[in-house]
Amino acid sequence: MREQRLAAAWARELEAVAARIGAFVPRPESRDRLGRFMRVTVAGETRRNGWQLAEAAAEATPHGMQRLVASAAWDVDGVRDDLRAYVVHALGAKDSVLIVDETGFLKKGTKSAGVQRQYSGTAGRIENCQIGVFLAYATARGHAFVDRELYLPESWIADRRRCREAGIPDAVAFHTKPQLAQGMLARAFAADLRPTWILGDAVYGNDRALRLWLEGQGQAFLLAIRSDERLWVWWHGAPRQMKVGAVADARPAAAWARRSAGAGSKGARTYDWALVPLARVGADGQHALLVRQHLLTGDRAYYVAFTPRRVTLNTLVQVAGRRWAIEQGFETSKQEIGLDQYEVRTYAAWYRFMTLTLYAHAFLAAMRARQTPRKKGLRPVRRASS
């Protein structure tokens, strides 16, 4: 009986999601096909190429599904914005964080928009791939993606003929990954999505322009940085710019505290941590360097933090542990809904496929949240008054 009620609730919610997206699809035929696309995507099919999607949706050929993603008339930006609203409504809580990260999609050939031999963190090496930059929303209730951008290397933007063949408009300019991240964050802020924290790895933390922009927004962040990043610290009573690795080397044993950043797949993620105030004379808020040190190997990770109001080491440690939500999101979205199993080549089709697939992932996250008791989240950081 319980299983029947759950199945009915899932069916009702999926129909509601299809109706939300359908509001941005003018043609009835495309709206019906979109509903079938969503049902098939969340059904757990092991592969999702055009033929398999069509077969699962009881269509004779893959052409309809391919047209839905490639060229059918619908407002992809409108669906993206509705996805963000859906996620916040389903998972919203006071402890929210926005996490930015990229993932690679291995590809063959040279025709897919943005594909080239480049480093993929997914593979851990240089591969022929596309790189997508994603923004995830996470609370104690769950996590899901709310935005996406396709990274286009400079070599692509410099070759306008190649861009046109892949459907990349002439107006699209080169943007670094941190610039793509800033654009997505700006869209979130404009939609009144103001999280407690912004999190990201060193690709974003080492970008000073992004950090200064977030400070200007009064937005708290905790971003990873490399050991060779130079920050201003207090050194024997005076400001000095130093590599953060050298700053950590100089910390005495008494400056380290053992804390857990939360539970992981193998138990508590316990490390030694050090918090170092930064020398930002005249700047508002708290600026700090956070260092994490492995208990056995001594390997370190470094973070730069800004908060409008002062917080404790314990809070920063807990926040640092929450970045892994986006890694889990990449894993589940690829395993459960085939985020990496697309057969589109053009620029617009990549955004269309990603948007619909991320909405399917958000639906699954929302249904899981409904079945999970609410948890007490982190205390929010008060924003600086303007």
Strand and helix map with partners:
Layout: H1 2-22, H2 28-41, H3 50-56, H4 63-70, H5 76-91, E1 97-106, E2 116-120, E3 125-139, E4 142-151, H6 154-158, H7 160-165, H8 177-190, E5 197-200, H9 202-205, H10 208-216, E6 221-225, E7 230-235, E8 238-243, H11 244-249, E9 257-264, E10 267-277, E11 286-293, E12 300-307, H12 313-320, H13 324-337, H14 347-370
Parallel strand pairs: 1-5, 5-6
Antiparallel strand pairs: 1-3, 2-3, 3-4, 6-12, 7-8, 9-10, 10-11, 11-12
Protein architecture, described:
The protein is of the alpha+beta class and 386 residues long. It folds into two domains: 2-199 and 326-370, no CATH class; 204-324, no CATH class. The protein is 40% helix and 25% strand. It contains 14 helices and twelve strands. The chain has helices at 2-22, 28-41, 50-56, 63-70, 76-91, 154-158, 160-165, 177-190, 202-205, 208-216, 244-249, 313-320, 324-337, 347-370, and strands at 97-106, 116-120, 125-139, 142-151, 197-200, 221-225, 230-235, 238-243, 257-264, 267-277, 286-293, 300-307. The strands form two sheets. Strands 1, 2, 3, 4, 5, 6, 9, 10, 11 and 12 form a ten-stranded mixed β-sheet that branches. Strands 7-8 form a two-stranded antiparallel ribbon.
Helix count equals 14
Low-confidence stretches: 376-386
Distance between the termini: 54 Å
Oligomer: single chain
Main pleated-sheet profile: 10 strands, mixed
Total E-strand runs: 12
What gyration radius follows from the Cα positions, in whole Å? 22 Å
* Envelope shape: globular
